[in-house]
Structure formats: structure tokens, C-alpha cells
């Protein structure tokens, strides 16, 4: 099943004083998805955006809002993000007391659900969850900050995750996305795609560059050359 490759702009690196404009500008420049990083200064050592910011941004775009929860506990905030216009909600298994229940909660609130793997988190968590998931997110940095360097062993993990995701898609006929988050640049996006990712979160690579359109076009040109086994 060929899944279109998608670029998800992480607005963590956008100009927060003009977030609505930034969202419109980056989608106009070719981003497929808005990646919305939620940090709580508890599960991760940083504090960012809450549901009211998601709600305020919703009228600025029809692009899917991909909410990445780096918060503990998880369940309390899920309905608030669904109400605020999130399309997709991902969470870290270490942050939820009952992973299966959290996945169900996200679905009950009308969103698709993703499970996020930190660099040292084993893919074993997929064993009893993959048939409920809509997305698997592999972290290629430790969560908490934009602008960090890509951890190379994430490529091996992506390959392993690709096999699990492909197996589940074949069994069920459902689409399950495989997303990568952290340190994605024009220079490494092709290798990341060849390792199996179909959704690429990019924050500083897009927002620190003067021309969003040129950066996204350069990423797409790299993706056009991808060869997969
Ligand atoms: C890190 C966040 C990422 C971050 C990516 O915890 O989850 O989404 O914004 O930023 P870059 O692309 O700059 O690594
Ligand atoms: Zn993220």
C-alpha cells in the first residue's frame, strides 16, 4: 500500500508572537500537516502550547493538526485537544498508566491515535497496540526541545517499525502512518524515508530558514529520489 509522503511542520520553531500567520504561511509553502508540540515541564523539561492555542489556530488552516503530547498524565487533556480541533493525538507510553485506555479515549473523542517512541523506548510496546493505532512516531531526538541533532540509530528503529506497521496494514487493510520527529533536515530526509518513514516532522529546518517554500521544495526533491527495497 503506497502511502503519500507528508511533511509536518513543527510550529515549536515558528515565531510564537505571530503563530496564526506562521501556520498559514507554512501551509501555503507546502507543508501537509501542522505538528503541535505540547510540553508540560514534568514529563519533559520544557513548557509550550496548550489546547487554547490549538483552538486559536484552528480557523487559520484546514491542514490536519497533529498534536504530540509530551505530558503526564495524558488522559485529562485528551478531550480538551479534541474539542480544540486536533485531528490526530500522539502520546508517550511511559506517560500513560493505561496505554490501551488512552488509545481508546483518543478514538472516542473522534481523533486518530499515535504512540511515540523515545530513543531508548523499545518497540515492544507495539505488540499489543499496533492494531489499535493509526500512527507510530519514532523520536530521533530526546523530547523537549527543537533544534537538536538527529540520533543516527533511529534509522534502524524505523526499519524495524516499518516491518511491524506493514504487517499490521496487510492484516487489517487500514492505513497506519510511520512518523519521524527530531533533527529532520534537507540533508537527511531521503535516508529517513528510505528507512521507512512516511511522515516527516521538521521544525527548525523549516522555520529557521528564510524561505519556507524553498526548504519544503528541497525536501520534496529529496523525497522524489527515494528508493525503497
Ligand atoms: C521535540 C519535538 C519536535 C521538535 C522538532 O521534542 O517533539 O517536534 O519540534 O524540532 P526540530 O525539527 O528542530 O528537531
Ligand atoms: Zn514533536
Task: Describe the protein.
This protein is α/β, with parallel strands linked by helices and 229 residues long. 32% of the residues lie in helices and 18% in strands. It contains 8 helices and 8 strands. An 8-stranded parallel barrel has the order 1-2-3-4-5-6-7-8. Helix 1 links the parallel strand 1 and strand 2. The longest helix has 19 residues, at 154-172. The radius of gyration is 16 Å and the shape is globular. The mean pLDDT is 97. The structure holds D-xylitol-5-phosphate and zinc ion (ZN). D-xylitol-5-phosphate (DX5) binds next to strand 2, strand 8 and helix 7.
Protein traits:
single chain, 229 residues, alpha/beta, 32% helix, globular, binds D-xylitol-5-phosphate, binds zinc ion
Amino acid at each position: 500500500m503506497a502511502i503519500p509522503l507528508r511533511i509536518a511542520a513543527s510550529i515549536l520553531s515558528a515565531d510564537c508572537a505571530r503563530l496564526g500567520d506562521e501556520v498559514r504561511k507554512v501551509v501555503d509553502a507546502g507543508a501537509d500537516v501542522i505538528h503541535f508540540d505540547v510540553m508540560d515541564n514534568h514529563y519533559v523539561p520544557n513548557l509550550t502550547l496548550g489546547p487554547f492555542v490549538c483552538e486559536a489556530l484552528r480557523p487559520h488552516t484546514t491542514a490536519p493538526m497533529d498534536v504530540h503530547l509530551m505530558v503526564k498524565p495524558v488522559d485529562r487533556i485528551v478531550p480538551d485537544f479534541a474539542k480544540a480541533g486536533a485531528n490526530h493525538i500522539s502520546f508517550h507510553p511511559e506517560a500513560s498508566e493505561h496505554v490501551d485506555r488512552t488509545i481508546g479515549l483518543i478514538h472516542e473523542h473522534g481523533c486518530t491515535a499515535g504512540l511515540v517512541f523515545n530513543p531508548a523506548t523499545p518497540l515492544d510496546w507495539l505488540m499489543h497496540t499496533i492494531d489499535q493505532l493509526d500512527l507510530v512516531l519514532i523520536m530521533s531526538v530526546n523530547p523537549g526541545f527543537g533544534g537538536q541533532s538527529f540520533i543516527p540509530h533511529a534509522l534502524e528503529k524505523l526499519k524495524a517499525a516499518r516491518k511491524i506497521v506493514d504487517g499490521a496494514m496487510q492484516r487489517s487493510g487500514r492505513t497506519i502512518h510511520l512518523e519521524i520527529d527530531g533533527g529532520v533536515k534537507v540533508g537527511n530526509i531521503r535516508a529517513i524515508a528510505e528507512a521507512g518513514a512516511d511522515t516527516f516532522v521538521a521544525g527548525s529546518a523549516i522555520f529557521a530558514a528564510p524561505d519556507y517554500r524553498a526548504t519544503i521544495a528541497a525536501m520534496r526533491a529529496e523525497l522524489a529520489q527515494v528508493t525503497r527495497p
